[in-house]
Amino acid sequence: MAERSILHVDMDAFFASVEVLDDPRLRGRPVIVGGTPESRGVVSAASYEARAYGVHSAMSAARALKLCPDGVFLRPRGARYAEISGHVFDVFHDFTPLVEPLSVDEAFLDVGGCLRLFGEAVTIGRRIKDRIRDEIGLVASVGVAPNKFLAKLASDLEKPDGFVVVEAGRERELLDPLPVSRLWGVGPRSQASLEALGIRTVRDMRLADPDRLEQGLGPAMARHVAALAEGRDDRPVVPDHEAKSIGHELTFAADIAGREALVDILDGLADKVARRLRRAGLLARTVQLKARYPDFSTRTRSLTLTAPSDSLRVLRDAGRELFDDHLDRRGRPLRLIGIAAQNLERADDRPAELFGDPEAERDRTLDVLTDRAADRFGKGALTRGLRRREPDD
Asked: Could you name the CATH architecture of 245-377?
């Protein structure tokens, strides 16, 4: 089996970090997200400052208050965490369509298919980590390894802000000193059974007699932990579902009015959507525009394309048409704008056209050139100049 390139990306203290991102006055303070002591709730997340007091998730808020009297207790804001999570996963999908979410703040990525585009897995991991910091303002820990088990283990070893690489052939060097509890599936009961056999470290596990392991854990569990002790894990990265839409949206720090500024932003979002479509080998039949006003009212409008497409020009023109036909022409400001490609189908499933459209072929060539330039030199290295369609054109 060819060596795989797997990343595990885990956002550090995600809920608490989003609260600090939105309110910088909380930086450096023990932030505790979850039920308040008065509500008899439980802790959902704690900043590393709060963890230093012994506060952790699933702990009662009352217990957290006793451990950390100076803690800042905040109620969860699920919609906000989901919004930021969406931005993080957008970064993931800019590199690979093979993203397996584990929760809103962590995922596996198989980057083996994009090494020629972006460089080695370590380089991709660094780029993802840097983009999350620079574009979103949060910190992620990243593990890079030949399989999922080792990648997840690696991402947890140097938190927060960790970056750990497990090179093929050096698995034992990493695993041997670790307690058996670090192996997936080894909970308190299994750990007690193993310790009764004199097995406390992964090295002990690796050198243990297979028959003794089976007697202590049962055949299936014994085979499972023995494989992990050797660093073996053949499970593939499996996206949770086939993509139903691909979209990008942007929430503004301050409300924005004016068609020119908003259409420039919309064009940039369409460019990102088109690139993701092409990278995933997908075509869109429908384009949807999303707009949110200062009063938080939200409007969505859709346009069905004459033919499925991944073309930047087609998506941009559709976005502009939706903007001009359906948004408030009185110049009402927006706090969010977004564009999404929907009703997706595989590009490989489309029959080849007997007589190609020259303009479409030209667009395809230009899209490929800009994709290659962006992959090699970064986004913005080469951009396309498209004539802006004015409202009355």
From this structure: 2-Layer Sandwich (3.30)
